Amino acid sequence: GENVEQHPSTLSVQEGDSAVIKCTYSDSASNYFPWYKQELGKRPQLIIDIRSNVGEKKDQRIAVTLNKTAKHFSLHITETQPEDSAVYFCAASRPGWGKLQFGAGTQVVVTP
Amino acid sequence: DAGVTQSPTHLIKTRGQQVTLRCSPKSGHDTVSWYQQALGQGPQFIFQYYEEEERQRGNFPDRFSGHQFPNYSSELNVNALLLGDSALYLCASSFLRGEQAKNIQYFGAGTRLSVL
Questions:
Q1: Measured between CA atoms, how close is B17 to chain A, in angstroms?
Q2: What is the Cα–Cα distance from A11 to A76, expressed in whole angstroms?
Q3: Strand partners, B114
Q4: More exposed terminus of chain A, fewer Cβ within 10 Å: N or C?
């Protein structure tokens, strides 16, 4: 079945710097790749997603890139702010599937 | 417009007991998925319900069962609770009907289950 690996497990950045989180997936049939942000004690919140027919998508300070050949996708956060501190999860899904296969998460800490 | 709501927020049970968790999807959504999130891990897919039927299931034993009602709300039932069932149980809703169908899932705040 699908396996999603996420790196790094923790990431500390200075406010204003960029943060990059990388995920690899095993199922070449996967075509949908969302990213969720989960603050302590809160629900996972969808922050951006990408489908396999595009290579990059951007929303303000957040961008996601997808390399289908290498089967990896990345989240890029620019100009980080303390409120970006949270656990970030990547996920992958096949067409027509309900299941989202999640990575193990990345704890991002932005220090002022 | 209400988002995904879950109840209860916290629950404490003992081994061997049974538990029922409830979820109301986001307005306009017709599909409910359930996930188990152990501490420090990513959510693990349990199953998804659409048109009142289990549409897809993850690697969870038959002790985990569910139901979807005509109003699209859903229940997750866990029988014969084990200590290892202690986790945050998340419900996510999405829209699967028709040409606008997409698997964009929005999560509720979860139910924290503790099994003693």
A1: 26
A2: 12
A3: B12
A4: C
Find chain B residues with C-beta within 8 A of A99's C-beta.
33, 45, 48, 56, 58
Q: What are phi and psi of A19, to 5 degrees?
A: -125, 140
Interface of A with B (CB under 8 A): 6, 32, 34, 36, 42-46, 49, 89, 91, 93, 97-105
B113: tokens are 């289950």
* CA nearest to B84, candidates B105, B111, B113: B113
Nearest to A107 by CA among A10, A17, A35: A10
Partner-chain residue, chosen from A42, A102, A104, that has the shortest CB–CB distance to B109: A42
Give the model confidence (pLDDT) of A24-66 as tens digits: 999 999 999 999 999 998 999 999 999 988 899 999 999 999 9
> Could you give the CA distance from residue B4 to residue A66 in angstroms, rounded to a whole number?
29
Angle formed at CA B25 by CA B23 and CA B27, multiple of 5 degrees:
150
Give the CA distances from residue A84 to residues A18, A69, B80, in Å, rounded to whole numbers and listed in that order: 11, 30, 40
Residues of chain B with pLDDT under 50: none
A:B CB pairs within 8 Å: 59
